């Protein structure tokens, strides 16, 4: 069991370093084949993946926000000790719990606890890995097999995160930073004119400064929207894509954009909307900045209970095998987004033959 606890500690540390939410951490644990639930100090379920919920006869969404303790019919004292405020151990003891599921059937599960670290240094939640008592060795083998994949996944997430931080840093330095520096000099110049009795000239400079401030506010709004478009929550994915395409056409006037949006907003799962938008951003930017494409086609539609996303261009393309070998962060990021949400991802490209990125998600529950 030592190896199992070491693996869980590694996942816990990765969660803290990457600032994963409880829901994202639950999804990650399910990806590598383990059942997990995250609870707060009161025993309320913050996140539970489908594998863990299925052990109790529920869907995950039915249990989020409820008290795990209400399902425990034996072993509650051991659970309460783990959840006790201020309690902390690097190697908390695993224990057994007896649950009563939806149908009333009793389930005896082995529970492996791990405390989750938070950015403020406090511990507010506990990860509980659930395993049937007869499956402990199988769970250990699953974690051992998944260790290399988990490390690669962590490395790719960190690389993508650092790339995004670099992009935002460049935007702030080259855009906002320079505008604010200009505004500073203009205000100083206006103050000097006013003190020198040249109030008219000082007023004229201040009027220009107001215009520069408006430009800075617009730039900040643009960066903010790119980081997380509020229209995704307020209006939905389709209007957000249309807004992005209008901005894209204004920025790349030499690129002809063909837009095919045949999906209905209500058909698109909420959990997919941000990932779909990020994939569109990445693929379209690649087409304009790296592929030298003159035509880009964006298609989002529902076909035979599948949501299909396709972004194609007529650019210079690339050697797909070489790109995969060298590990382009953008391509891997798109693939990770699709596959981590249960979709299928494919990309077709060759030198001088353009590039096509496709993703499919099943809409059948």
UniProtKB/TrEMBL annotation:
> Pfam families from the entry?
HATPase_c (PF02518), HisKA_3 (PF07730), PAS_9 (PF13426)
Residue limits of the PAS domain?
21-102
InterPro entries registered for this protein in UniProt: HATPase_C_sf, HATPase_dom, His_kinase_dom, PAS, PAS-like_dom_sf, Sensor_HK_TwoCompSys, Sig_transdc_His_kin_sub3_dim/P
- Which keywords are on file for this protein? ATP-binding, Kinase, Nucleotide-binding, Phosphoprotein, Transferase, Two-component regulatory system
Q: Where is the Histidine kinase domain?
A: 167-365
Asked if the record carries the keyword Phosphoprotein, the reply is: yes
Q: Name one GO molecular function term.
A: ATP binding
- EC main class here is transferase
Write out the catalysed reaction: ATP + protein L-histidine = ADP + protein N-phospho-L-histidine
Q: Which EC numbers does the record give?
A: 2.7.13.3
| Keyword RNA-binding recorded | no
NCBIfam families recorded: sensory_box
Q: What is this protein called?
A: histidine kinase
